[in-house]
Amino acid sequence: MKTHSVEASKFTSNPERVHWHDKALWFVREKRDKASRRIDEWEELRKTASQIKLHTIANLDKYLTEFEANAQANGIIVHWALDANEHNQIVYDILQKKNVKKLVKSKSMLTEECGLNPFLETRGIEVIDTDLGERIVQLRKEHPSHIVLPAIHLKKEEVGQLFEKYLGTEKENSDPTYLTEAARGHLREKFLEADAGLTGVNFAIAETGGFVVCTNEGNADLGNSLPDLHIACMGIEKLIPKVNDLSVFLRLLAASATGQVITTYSSHFMKPKIGQELHIVLVDNGRSNIIGEEEFYRALSCIRCGACINTCPVYRRSGGHSYSYIIPGPIGTVLGPHRGMNEHNSLAFASTLCGSCSDVCPVKINIHEQIFYWRQRIVQSIPQPILKSLSMKLTSYLFQSPTLYKIGTKFAKFALSVLPSSLVKKLVKPWSQHREIPKIANKSFKEMYEEEKK
Amino acid sequence: MNSREYILAKIAEKNKSLQFDYPEYNFEYSSIVDPIQSFCASLELVGGKSILVENSKRLSISIKNTDVFKNAKEIASLYKNITGNIELSLSENPHSLKNLDLMIVEVELGVAENGAVWIDTTDMKNRICLFICQHLIFVLKKESIVSNMQQAYNKLNFSKIKNGYFISGPSKTADIEQSLVIGAQGARSCTVFIY
User: Fold this and answer.
1) A360-369: average pLDDT
2) What whole-number distance in Å separates Cα of residue A261 and Cα of residue A97?
3) What is the per-residue pLDDT for A361?
4) Interface of B with A in 50-89 (CB under 8 A)
5) Are A60 and B127 in contact (CB < 8 Å)?
6) Based on the number of CB atoms within 10 Å of its own CB, is A342 exposed (0-12), middle (13-18) or buried (19 or more)?
7) Which helix or strand (DSSP H or E) is residue A262 part of?
8) pTM higher than 0.90, yes or no?
């Protein structure tokens, strides 16, 4: 079971790497800020987007049925998957019927969540992730470390070495343009060989029964326009009521994600192209349960932009692989524990609760508050380390009585002045691992205040 | 009970107490005073190129004078005044377009704030041409440039449109150590001729 602090300590063992990663992510955060300032009505857009999403969640059953009816009227085949396994089985069955041996995929965190790739591979289907960052991590047999920038944790030299091994690129050539060109050729072959293309869904529109996919590289559209089978997979919360709502979301998404005004391609699909089968798989996988959670349903507004991940000081300095959930950072921290509080019990504590995530969220999810609610839930449900629970109980007891508090602080002051700091540090490990014991003031604030009053 | 019924019933149960109205909104207003100039600036920002042609009669000549046209071996055109050497409607199999160098498309809409053009591919045979080509040239009327996305969506009729794309500039990626590379997997360049 992954604990964030343990995994992060591996990452932080290389401080130079930490600084590099931190700077890289902060750079993306700054680009987001610049993009947001270009739009005078940015805050109005955020507010509107938030309201549209909350309204959709409150009426999701109605909008899903509307979406399904409109999609089917246009010839799209609609499937419903209760959980990850059913999703995988549905996709496999569609592929099997058409004798698909090679599948090309564009970015879909949902398929990562469901574990689609290994499911298909063990059943004899070759799956190629075609987004450049995803292809890189696929070749490295790793998970993406970020939902938008899958290979942000890698230096170009590492990509160079990887491509030398798998794509036959020149030794020690780590020029990004050269490497991207090599990937272009390699992936074009895959597109031309593919029997089917699978994409995610950024937005599904109830009013038209259509959906939109937002990308920069062109891989999604190469993947779904060459073969005669296109499967789109989406979490049910990706729905929005009307086409016009896209005018709000498309102005927020790319700007929040990478600081671009819009992604290169905003691809709108309402019906299959001639001679092609178009399927959409609507996935629940616990989302309907979250709707009923008073503290947490707002997280279903998420449009998977990654802005919260870019800004999070903890993520920036620990990297995506330190997180036990497939989606890292703040939004992963509030979505993950629904999948298993025990498995993801460390995430909510890998936070300073600074609230930066909530500030940049384009749909105004109160992420940092939800992290706090999770702390409360986890502490109530999962036995905490004895030292932690005892010290919390003791402190709480102490704080409730002014007399005990006075005695306690006087004693602490005395103890800190006579005990060697090495011993004190041992007592408050791991807090003291990277901190010095603070100097205790001669007079407490209360004492100074009392004196001033006289 | 199948999954569909189960999911819908669960959602209906869980959102019973939630009440949020659909918001009234209107983002039509834009502070952009010169949409054409703004479009050109936005397009350049995303790695594209704009060429303003005063005399529409010179449009074809201008296009044919570009390097991408002169160097292209296979050209397909959906612009009425230029004929390519590849006929899209005759290409039975999208794979046959794999060596397409240049795709020329007359587009009906441009968006100033992001340099995107809208292409309605509802009736297009072989939409792959937009992505598999090495270079894109778009032809756009000045009057067809709107300021922002709400203005754009106001003009699009989605009861008729069944497939379409906003394309803003050439394909790109920054997946390798955040270094921007123009020309990722789709078009390497995107030039918009405005007349």
Assistant:
1) 98
2) 41
3) 98
4) none
5) no
6) exposed
7) none
8) yes
